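Entry:
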Amino acid sequence: MARLLGARSLTVAQPQQGSPDLQLSGVIAHPDGHGIALIGPPGQPAHSYVVGSAVREGLWLQSVGTRKAELGADKQGGARQVLELPSNPDK
């Protein structure tokens, strides 16, 4: 799937701890900010969201990076929430 989207990296990690509302479980990121993020409430299965799609009412996935997802009130406005994958202690 990552190659189909032109991604150079695939990062999947354990959900971020400490995010009370949503957590980021993984990303498939293209260098231009497009891609897919796996996002869900803590303790529940994550769903995949393509950049530009609504995560829930009033919250859109704006862009993804190799270890983060930026969410905002519209498709392209300033990010209001940044979800990050936890650091990988093996690297």
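Strands lie at 9-12, 23-29, 35-40, 47-50, 54-56, 59-64, 68-72, 81-84.
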